[in-house]
Design a protein that fits this description.
This protein is α/β, with parallel strands linked by helices. It is 36% helix and 20% strand. It is built from ten helices and eleven strands.
Length: 356
């Protein structure tokens, strides 16, 4: 297994399962090691799943490289007691980044709480991470909301609200030749789950290189070479096969509980016909029946149907290319120039502060 967790990995469920699958032995690669950080900003319900998704994707993309992963948490993200215990056990606070360098960094999205990203409680901390990453990594991946936040902070590019949620698996084509898309088949499929978009014209005007876009013209992945190579994903190459299904179930349950007024649309390009027909029948029944029985039916229906991960191969190649870029930079002897950002306010910089 090429991925190694820095810190207490022996009891982390991802590595416990991997050890069992390998008959109790995990072997260190002889290749030069790469050290990356993962800043996980996802809400409590998705915290561990997001860890697993990114660790699994990096592990499958490593291609013999030894990858050491450090987990980081950001202040300002509200956490439950259980999530806080997990973070204290396996994560470091972002203040531990300021006096170090990493080969690479991945920053996840977060659950939006404000219309304006600058009003999010973690905005100040996130902008310091953006500034730090520009000088202290060879490359950083910005995912979903983190991508939008980085664009806004770096170049003042604002996201635009979509009329309908972009939800499902979409065919994308390579938009340019780039080392990050080398060997990636075109078209490729990529999951998306978002309410906001970025105009391609604004990206190109500010010097961003669009890597992939969907057939309807929506940008999927893009990059900008600064002192660090910044890579942006509006989609979710890390998603597991059932992630969109679980999101759809969550949104349906919110409707059935009266927490939203409209029935959520099914994910596009994702469900087979039988599963889609089943959910359509449940949707047609729901306006007159928001009964507990319907809520009980939904998990059983999900368990009986199968969905396939049709994007894993392309995702692994994209991340494999990213890891190869990090390795090449390290072998060249390039060193990110360490720059320490302004210190966080005292109330926001306590070690491992995650309670928000």
């Amino acid at each position: 297994m090429p991925v190694h967790l820095v810190g207490d990995a022996s009891s982390h469920e991802f590595f416990v399962r991997a050890k069992c699958a390998s008959n109790g032995e995990l072997h260190e690669s002889a290749a030069p090691s790469i050290h990356i950080g993962l800043i996980n900003n996802m809400p409590d319900a998705a915290l561990k799943a997001t860890e697993r998704q990114f660790l699994t994707l990096v592990d499958s993309a490593a291609n013999g490289m030894a990858i050491h992963v450090s987990l980081y948490a950001m202040p300002g993200v509200p956490r439950s007691e259980g999530a806080t215990r997990h973070l204290h056990r396996f994560y470091s606070g972002i203040e531990n980044l300021w006096d170090r360098r990493l080969d690479g960094l991945i920053v996840t999205g977060a659950e939006p709480r404000a219309q304006n990203l600058k009003d999010e409680p973690y905005w100040e901390s996130l902008t310091k991470v953006i500034d730090w990453a520009g000088h202290n990594t060879h490359s950083t991946v910005w995912s979903c909301l983190a991508a939008h936040a980085a664009l806004l902070h770096i170049d003042g590019i604002g996201r635009r609200r979509l009329a309908n949620k972009r939800f499902g698996v979409f065919e994308c084509a390579r938009a340019s030749d780039h080392q990050l898309t080398a060997g990636v088949g075109s078209p490729l499929r990529m999951p998306h789950s978002r309410w906001n978009d970025i105009l391609e014209s604004e990206l190109t005007h500010c010097g961003y290189n669009v890597l992939t876009r969907s057939h309807d013209g929506s940008v999927d992945a893009f990059a900008k070479q600064r002192k660090s190579l910044f890579v942006f994903f509006q989609g979710h190459p890390e998603y597991e096969a059932n992630t969109l299904l679980l999101e759809y179930r969550r949104d349906v349950r919110r409707y059935l509980r009266g927490e939203r007024d409209t029935y959520p649309p099914m994910p596009e390009g994702y469900l087979d016909r039988d599963t889609a027909d089943l959910f359509a029948a449940m949707r047609d029944r729901s306006p007159s029946d928001r009964s507990p029985e319907l809520r009980v039916d939904l998990p059983a229906a999900l368990a009986e149907k199968r969905v396939a991960n049709t994007w894993h191969s392309a995702s692994a190649r994209l991340y494999g290319n990213w890891l190869a870029y990090l390795q090449a930079q390290k072998r060249r002897g390039a060193r990110p120039r360490r720059t320490v950002p302004a210190l966080l306010p005292a109330h926001a910089s306590a070690a491992r502060s995650t309670t928000g």
